[in-house]
């Protein structure tokens, strides 16, 4: 996924005139397009010119000047002082980013994307933000507020007079097939207008709490932060991202819907921070493998991998291995994800949560907390890999794993092995001694030294326990088993493993 903003570049545009001849007799002197006027598509005007003439003055170009610390690539070589700062110290370079935005008030409040005005690289800093109007007037802009999660920012300029501005519309009424217009600053060419239709609504591009309007209106680098208008001239989206292997338009662009943007913008405009709901769980989609191992329908609910101590989910009694299917009477689906639903719930509200545990449905009540900053959330994420218990000279013959339908061979976890693996002495499970790489277990990254704590939510203290769990799912006509796996330095994780085809 690429953000639709650009680094300054010089473009050379050229064109070639092509002469077209006709085989008509010399007496036929009427051009093919004489008097032609295309019929307007239903619901759209013959031309967007009148609409654009009124809207375009409210769209602005935004540029930033940044300082970036770069390392001398010749540091430590005889050429270090010749091609860089003496001693190989970092050097400061100037950079510039370009994007779009639009005025939402006559006194100079402007909406754009956060990534348009954020530092473009690690260690960079933004020195100044400049806003250029369509009449080429330039203003120095102040950053009023930004929200990284929604990728929105609000700027303020001090205009000499009242400025043209636009208002938001109701994006909840947007339908697939509706006409839309995008105005922005692609490739630093200045105000550019493109038109298209809405290709999809509520599109999830992988973020936990984002939902986009997808359009085939051309959106390119530099369009970020520009408005998407409906046929009434109202802003129903803020152009934000493109999906493209080349970085250019391929007809798949995404805009932040007004229904999500407006509350964030109003909060930022007041100088306040955006607050979002939080339960404190690690989740994964209910994939086909996990769903099969539990005997559930896929894509209905989300699987709980971990629960953060002391947060709302923990206090409500939610446990790893649970499948949450409803929150506040809203079904959890790939379009209505758990993160999306919870993020939009009021802080401190009490909500019912319906979940499935060991095949039984139950309902708990949770108090919604406030989502912590992203850097704190990273501490709850999985740690990096450590590969203990994997000395190749002590690796058993892979044939032992090849004989197992799960594709792994195991041994009981003894106190000595627990010390070697660096896990608590009270840990109970079986340790993987070898993995058949040709099986699903190998494809999903299981390896020697991983500890299987449970299979299908039943403790596995011996190899017989693991085989019994496999026999149980096989008897039920399923072809996958749900394992809870512990690896040194990481929290225990659930993974659905398909059995070897007989």
Automatic annotation (TrEMBL):
Its EC number is 3.4.21.107. One of its GO terms (molecular function) is serine-type endopeptidase activity. One of its GO terms (biological process) is proteolysis. It is found in: Periplasm. Transmembrane segments: none annotated. Keywords: Hydrolase, Periplasm, Protease, Repeat, Serine protease, Signal, Stress response. Belongs to the peptidase S1C family. This is Probable periplasmic serine endoprotease DegP-like. The lineage of its organism: Bacteria, Pseudomonadati, Pseudomonadota, Alphaproteobacteria, Sphingomonadales.
């Amino acid at each position: 996924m690429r953000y639709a903003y650009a680094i300054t570049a010089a473009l050379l545009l050229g064109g070639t005139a092509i002469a077209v001849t006709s085989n008509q007799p010399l007496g036929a002197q009427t051009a093919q397009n004489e008097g032609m006027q295309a019929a307007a598509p239903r619901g759209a005007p013959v031309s967007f010119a009148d609409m654009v003439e009124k809207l375009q003055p409210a769209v602005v170009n935004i540029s930033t000047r940044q300082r970036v610390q770069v390392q001398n690539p010749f540091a430590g070589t005889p050429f270090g002082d010749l091609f860089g700062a003496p001693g190989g110290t970092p050097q400061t370079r100037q950079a510039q980013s370009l994007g779009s935005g639009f005025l939402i008030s006559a006194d100079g409040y402007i909406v754009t994307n956060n990534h348009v005005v954020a530092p473009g690289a690690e260690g960079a800093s933004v020195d100044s933000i400049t806003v250029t109007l369509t009449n080429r007037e330039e203003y120095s802009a102040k950053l009023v507020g930004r929200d990284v999660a929604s990728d929105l920012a609000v700027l303020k300029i001090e205009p000499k007079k009242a400025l043209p501005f636009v208002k938001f519309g109701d994006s909840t009424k947007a339908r697939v097939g509706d006409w839309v217009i995008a105005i922005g600053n692609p490739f630093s060419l200045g105000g550019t207008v493109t038109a298209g239709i809405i290709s999809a609504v509520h599109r999830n591009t992988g973020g936990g709490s984002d939902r986009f309007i997808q359009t085939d209106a051309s959106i390119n680098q530099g369009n970020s932060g520009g408005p998407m208008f409906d046929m009434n001239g109202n802003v129903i989206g803020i152009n934000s991202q493109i999906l493209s292997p080349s970085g250019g338009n391929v007809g798949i662009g995404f805009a932040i819907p007004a229904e999500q943007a407006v509350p964030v913008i109003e909060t930022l405009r007041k100088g306040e921070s955006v607050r979002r709901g939080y339960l404190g769980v690690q989740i994964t989609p209910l994939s086909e493998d996990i769903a099969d191992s539990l005997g559930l329908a896929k894509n209905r609910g989300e699987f709980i991998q971990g629960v953060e101590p002391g947060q709302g989910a923990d206090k409500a009694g939610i446990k790893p291995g649970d499948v949450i299917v409803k929150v506040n009477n809203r079904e959890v689906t790939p379009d209505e994800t758990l993160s999306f639903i919870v993020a939009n719930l009021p802080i401190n509200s009490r909500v019912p949560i319906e979940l499935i545990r060991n095949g039984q449905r139950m309902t708990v009540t949770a108090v919604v907390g406030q989502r912590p900053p992203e850097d704190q959330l990273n501490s709850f994420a999985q740690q990096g890999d450590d590969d203990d218990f994997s000395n190749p000279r002590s690796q058993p013959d892979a044939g032992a794993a090849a004989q197992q339908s799960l594709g792994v061979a195991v041994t009981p976890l003894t106190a000595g092995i627990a010390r070697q693996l660096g896990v608590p002495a009270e840990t109970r499970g079986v340790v993987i001694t070898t993995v058949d790489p040709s099986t699903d277990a190998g494809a999903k990254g299981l390896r020697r030294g991983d500890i299987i704590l449970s299979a299908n939510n039943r403790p596995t203290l011996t190899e017989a326990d693991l085989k019994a769990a496999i026999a149980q799912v096989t008897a039920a006509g399923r072809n996958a088993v749900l394992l809870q796996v512990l690896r040194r330095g990481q929290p225990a994780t659930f993974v659905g493993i398909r059995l070897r085809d007989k």
